[in-house]
Amino acid sequence: MKQKLLFLITFLTISLGFAQIPSGYYSNATGSGYTLKTQLKSIISNGHIDNGYGALYDAYVKTDNDSFYEKDNTVLDMYSENPSGADAYNYNHKQRNCGNYNSENDCYNREHIFPQGFFNKRTPMRTDIHHVVPADGYINGRRSNYPFGEVTSATFTSNNGSKIGQNTFGNHSGTVFEPINEFKGDIARMLLYFATRYEDEVTSNSWDAPNASVNNPLNGTNNQVYENWYIQLLYKWHTQDPVSNREIVRNNEAYKFQGNRNPFIDHPEYVSEIWSSVLSIKQESLLEDISIYPNPSTINRITITIPNDLKINAIVLYNVIGATIYKTTNPTIANQKIRIKDLKKGFYILKISSDTKSLSKKIIIQ
Is 182 helix (H, G, I), strand (E, B) or coil? Predict the structure, then answer.
């Protein structure tokens, strides 16, 4: 199971040395809203090196190596990886990479998380490793240029559970591709990176309009970039599947390869700061009304009080090394209170997730 590390980024990054963000890299990111987004574009455009399309396969040895699940140093493919058991198949790096396939496990190729048909294969978008990943060729082909979404009734399901079908999230009713939960946050942050790095290009007349008009969730602006439902979907995935150690390693290796970083891995809070006008203010406000008592606590328990009308998807308590101490999903909350007992002295991080937002709090048991 992927280790959830959103709290480590904000609480322990410096002491544990995970992020390896160059000193001063984000010093000019001082604005808010879409001003912040444009500042980030400038930061991540500066130093971006286009190494060419062929170089990606060599780079994947470092950026997309399975050192996290089976730890067998095969290609880490989000469309075939089974995080809770043995994979149905694996690819060795730089072997069986191809463009011809008839079924899963024939070969792997390069998947553009934001489809390259929408930007007519222009560079550096086509070669940008922050959104171009290794993937089974057949699943890549089945995904086509469908947007990502959520599916209730699948017309196709891959070996690892990725699905194609009619979207059931928001007001978009077209065909979408839904990855497994393990990688939804990864994919969301890649798409938000794309919206930031290429904000000036997304409204260009040179984009492939015939393709873009069918499935592309762009809203025609270079500030918001995506349609409301897509921003809300990506934010939901971003909060429910926080940044993992695998993403941090990938971001560091991508920086070594092409000279820029994904800011939403380094600073997950930037997402809500930029797109706050599109996101649910009510849920955000209700989350802020959650109370935790006592904190600090001189007894071995805490009580969490949940406001009325706030739907909770998960409550997780971690210790400082990332181990899960307590977890409940979709809880039934009696009298709007949840009590966590038998806690040992020390520091903890409490993470509470709702539909589109999450809240993290430091807990101290004295």
Answer: helix
Please state, in angstroms and rounded to a whole number, the distance separating the CA atoms of residues 112 and 132: 5
Surface-to-core class of residue 94, CB atoms within 10 Å of its CB (0-12 exposed, 13-18 middle, 19+ buried): exposed
| Contact criterion met (CB below 8 Å) for 150 and 180 | no
User: What element of type H or E holds 305?
Assistant: strand 302-305
Please state, in angstroms and as integers, the Cα–Cα distance from residue 14 to each residue in 11, 171, 246, 280, following that order. Answer: 8, 41, 17, 31
Chunked mean pLDDT (size 10), the chain, 366 residues: 41 43 95 96 98 97 97 97 94 92 97 91 95 97 96 96 95 93 97 97 57 71 93 92 93 98 94 87 66 89 84 87 87 84 91 77 89
Q: Which residues pair with 302 in a beta bridge?
A: 340
pLDDT of residue 284: 60
Q: Where are the alpha helices (DSSP H) in the chain?
A: 6-11, 13-16, 33-45, 55-63, 137-143, 184-197, 209-215, 228-240, 245-258, 263-266, 270-275, 281-288
* CA–CA dist 253, 58 (Å, integer): 12
Compute the distance between CA of residue 135 and CA of residue 59 in angstroms, rounded to an integer: 14
Give Cα 300 distance to the centre of its chain.
34
Beta bridge partners of 108: 97, 136
How many secondary structure helices (H) and strands (E) does the chain include?
A: 12, 12
Whether the Cβ atoms of residue 267 and residue 8 lie closer than 8 Å to each other: no
For residue 202, give the nearest of 258, 316, 120 by alpha carbon.
120
Would you state the CATH architecture of domain 281-365? Answer: Sandwich (2.60)
Instruction: Tell me where in the chain the CATH 2.60.40.10 domain(s) lie.
Output: 281-365
Structure tokens at 110: 């390069």
What does the pLDDT read at residue 230? 96
**Amino acid occupying residue 347:** F
Contact 351, 362 (CB under 8 A): no
Two tokens, residue 304: 């969490």
246, amino acid identity:
R
**Residue bearing tokens 């092409």:** 258
Cα-Cα-Cα-Cα torsion 201, 271, 127, 136, nearest 10 degrees, comes to: -130
